Amino acid sequence: MVHLQKTDTKKFDVKKTEGMFRRHLEFRKEFPEEYFAKEYQLPKNIAILRDLLLPPVLGYDKDGCPVRLVQVGRQDIKGGLCCFRPSEMPKYFVWFLDMDKEEMRKRSRETGVHIEKRTFIIDLEGLNLLHIYRRDVYEMALAFLKLYENNYPENFKVAFIINTPSFFHCLFNMFKPLLSENTCERLKIYGNSGWKEAILEHIEADLLPVTYGGTRTDPDGDPCCPSLVKILNPIPKELHLKNMNSLSEDDKNVRKITVGSRSKCNIHLKVDVPGSTVGWQVECPRYDIKMYLVYAEGSKHDMVTKPVTVRCDFGSETGCYLAERTGLYSLVLDNSYSIFREKQILCKVYVTAYTSKISHVFKTVLSENNNS
């Protein structure tokens, strides 16, 4: 169910709201909330880093909203990007945001107070141009802002952006056109002073580490609370994607497929229940291959996901699609652009049907067809 919490009733525009609603429905076809909140599994290397990468919840502000502390400047940004595949970034963002929404619902049930907004403290101390003077950093920030602004804006209460460097306003002006006026009004931007008093107006002192203007310390008296605010710098290279083997040929559910040069391979799956999720994990141990999902009923095939390139230096590609239509779907492994090289592919594909309480895998691959 899609809620119209995304709209600001003071600036309600029927046509704009309808457009947002339709775009959000399309978004949820690609990123079904139930799947990401309950079923989605992080890649192994990200699961290991989970507690280090997720901004910690300090507690709840004076209105009952969760408070997350995001430390940007002291993180190993370059090493972190080696652990993520660019095409997977939206999945991680959605997983985090949907898990957070689920926690807010749980908190609402426990307290009897409706909670649907987040408060952020974003600390930029230590951030320098070497961190951000990279195309992949820019693209990651761009992807997150677009996704959040288009699908979760009314889950955002306020963000205190503190310890901003001298170049921050130039950086902010690059992204500001993506943000609505309503979102910009909720950003409270500070240099190295004045922010502690502002934060304490919203958050109790006993929740904040001493270094952030509060009274909280670690059990050993450390005012920075490193047990809560964890930093891993540098990130071990063995956790970089190129050093991870996600799929094993020994797994009985993994298929090894050879896709010839100038050809495609169609992996067919049957969906019997509307609202089922078609899922896949594909790995190209050498070189790269394109991949997309089509609805294959009838003579005309309808592409339902955008083509992505699975590259050998980024491990396996994991994805899913919410199938509202029953019938035949095909996961297409496209090597038609390669004139000379055939590609060896490892893949795992499935269809998951949801019930009211549990989900189970009930259909697997029907066949493989190589199309020249």
Count of extended strands: 16
Percent of residues in helices comes to 25-40%
- Biggest sheet features: 6 strands, antiparallel
Tell the overall outline.
globular
Radius of gyration using CA atoms only: 23 Å
The total count of helices amounts to 10
**Average pLDDT:** 85
Distance between the termini: 42 Å
Order of helices and strands: HHHEEHHEHHEHHEHEEEEEEEEEEE
Low-pLDDT segments: 1-7, 356-370
Coarse structural class: alpha+beta
What fraction of the residues are assigned to beta strands by DSSP? Answer: 25-35%
Features of this protein?
6-stranded antiparallel β-sheet; disordered C terminus; disordered N terminus; globular; alpha+beta; 16 strands; 372 residues; 10 helices; 5-stranded mixed β-sheet
What this model shows, in words?
With 372 residues, the chain is an alpha+beta fold. 27% of the residues lie in helices and 26% in strands. The protein contains ten helices and 16 strands. Strands 7, 9, 10, 11, 13 and 16 form a six-stranded antiparallel β-sheet that branches. The protein has a five-stranded mixed β-sheet with strand order 1-2-3-4-5. Strands 6, 8, 12, 14 and 15 form a five-stranded antiparallel β-sheet that branches. The longest helix has 23 residues, at 89-111. The model is unreliable at 1-7 and 356-370 (pLDDT under 50).
